[in-house]
């Protein structure tokens, strides 16, 4: 395979971050789960004693923080999640002529990104929505947001699980490189809470809701004072069943419960940790070396925000004793795992302080397995 040469003159000129008004602490989640578990175990005591059912284990805030580093998360609907009789968010269905919830989230982040980049909707040629879950199959959420903004161009949705943000940013780079667009609005509205089984001790705490957006454009058209020039992109996928969601419209044809066991998010956490950490570290080291640099030359790593133990191990592999929270910032303590949005949240919150000439890498990884990354340099425009 011939070596790919990254086209020059493409920048990320602005990002936007929108968070829901509601937050849930670990303590609140634990209270709801333990109340549910106590009731479940009491009502099914005979079947549990007979070995026909397994008792629901109890959780604790200490267990959650030690296992993940998560302390709280943002969600779009709090009350239903904390109701032991419901244990899932309540999201009332909207009429077809109303903006859907995921589009509404994405639209709010998109407006913030456009403002940061000093761009108007008429400056944008394409909209890409990348998310781990999409609220519907069609029409595309991206086209709905395009319509709400009044953008004249094209739009589409894409899904690569927790790598959807970096993969969608790379598709924006591809569109600009090919000449099919001059400026692309990339939106990652992660409506993650509906996929969570809040009755499962091992996963009830993992995800939060959020939306991020980025403006990717030709450098010569950039109106911002500074921007992040994209030095290179890199993507890799390797099939694995260790992170999986089997929720599907085909459940109707299989005569099974679409929300039954194994249909929502599940993972083999130990295998994911063991296999993904070295894979991500090698991917990132190879990318910076292909660009003629070493990991030591990277001023900041905006890593996927799934688990603090994974981040710490990857940072250690890349930076050795130089690994610090300043060089690899953590945001999952406040936001939890926001699926594909985490690394862009870290970039949004921890990039303005760096001077012109600084270099950084945005990286996300997840189900697939999939890994996507972009190497950047801050430039004056």
Proportion of strand residues: 15-25%
The Rg value, from CA coordinates, equals 21 Å
Amount of helix: 25-40%
pLDDT < 50 stretches: none
Mean pLDDT: 94
Shape: globular
Q: N-to-C SSE series?
A: EEHHHEHEHEHEEEEHEHEHHHEE
Q: In what order do the strands lie side by side in the largest sheet? A: 5-4-6-7-1-8-13-12-11
Structural class: alpha+beta
Largest sheet, in brief, is: 9 strands, mixed
* Termini gap: 35 Å
| Helical segment count | 11
Number of strands: 13
Q: Can you give a write-up of this model?
A:
Helix content is 32%, strand content 22%. With 381 residues, it is an alpha+beta fold. The two termini are 35 Å apart. 45% of the residues are buried.
Secondary structure layout:
Layout: E1 10-18, E2 22-25, H1 26-43, H2 45-49, H3 61-68, E3 72-75, H4 101-117, E4 126-130, H5 141-149, E5 154-158, H6 164-178, E6 183-190, E7 210-218, E8 226-237, E9 243-244, H7 251-254, E10 266-267, H8 269-290, E11 300-302, H9 308-319, H10 332-335, H11 342-349, E12 359-366, E13 370-380
Parallel strand pairs: 4-5, 4-6, 11-12
Antiparallel strand pairs: 1-7, 1-8, 2-3, 6-7, 8-13, 9-10, 12-13
Helix pairs in contact: 4-5, 8-9
List keywords for this structure.
381 residues; globular; alpha+beta; 13 strands; two-stranded antiparallel sheet
Structure summarized in a few sentences:
This protein has 381 residues and is of the alpha+beta class.
């Amino acid at each position: 395979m011939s070596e790919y040469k990254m086209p020059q003159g493409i920048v990320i000129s602005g990002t936007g971050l929108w968070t829901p008004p509601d937050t849930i602490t670990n303590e609140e989640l634990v209270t709801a789960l333990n109340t549910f578990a106590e009731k479940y175990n009491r009502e099914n005591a005979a079947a549990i004693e007979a070995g026909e059912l397994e008792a629901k284990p109890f959780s604790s805030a200490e267990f959650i923080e030690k296992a993940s580093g998560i302390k709280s998360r943002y969600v779009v609907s709090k009350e239903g999640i904390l109701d032991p009789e419901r244990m899932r968010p309540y999201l009332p269905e909207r009429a077809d002529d109303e903006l859907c919830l995921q589009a509404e989230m994405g639209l709010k982040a998109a407006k913030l990104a456009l403002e940061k980049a000093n761009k108007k909707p008429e400056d944008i040629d394409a909209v890409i929505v990348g998310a781990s879950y999409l609220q519907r199959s069609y029409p595309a959420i991206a086209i709905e947001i395009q319509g709400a903004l009044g953008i004249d161009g094209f739009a589409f949705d894409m899904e690569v699980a927790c790598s959807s943000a970096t993969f969608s940013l790379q598709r924006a780079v591809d569109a600009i490189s090919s000449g099919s667009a001059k400026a692309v609005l990339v939106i990652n509205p992660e409506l993650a809470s509906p996929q969570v089984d809040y009755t499962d001790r091992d996963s009830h705490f993992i995800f939060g809701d959020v939306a991020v957006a980025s403006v990717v454009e030709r450098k010569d058209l950039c109106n911002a004072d500074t921007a992040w020039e994209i030095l290179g992109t890199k993507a890799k996928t390797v099939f694995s069943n260790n992170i999986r969601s089997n929720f599907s419209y085909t459940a109707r044809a299989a005569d099974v419960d679409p929300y039954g066991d194994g249909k929502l998010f599940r993972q083999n956490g130990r295998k994911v940790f063991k296999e993904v950490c070295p894979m991500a570290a090698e991917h990132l080291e190879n990318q910076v070396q292909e660009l003629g640099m070493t990991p030591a030359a990277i001023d900041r790593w905006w890593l996927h925000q799934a688990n603090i133990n994974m981040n710490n191990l990857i940072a250690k592999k890349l930076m050795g004793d130089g690994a610090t929270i300043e060089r690899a910032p953590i945001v999952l303590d406040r936001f939890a795992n926001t699926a594909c949005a985490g690394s862009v949240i870290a970039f949004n919150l921890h990039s303005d302080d760096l001077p012109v000439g600084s270099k950084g890498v945005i990286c996300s990884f997840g189900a697939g397995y999939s890994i996507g990354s972009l190497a950047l340099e801050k430039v004056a425009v």
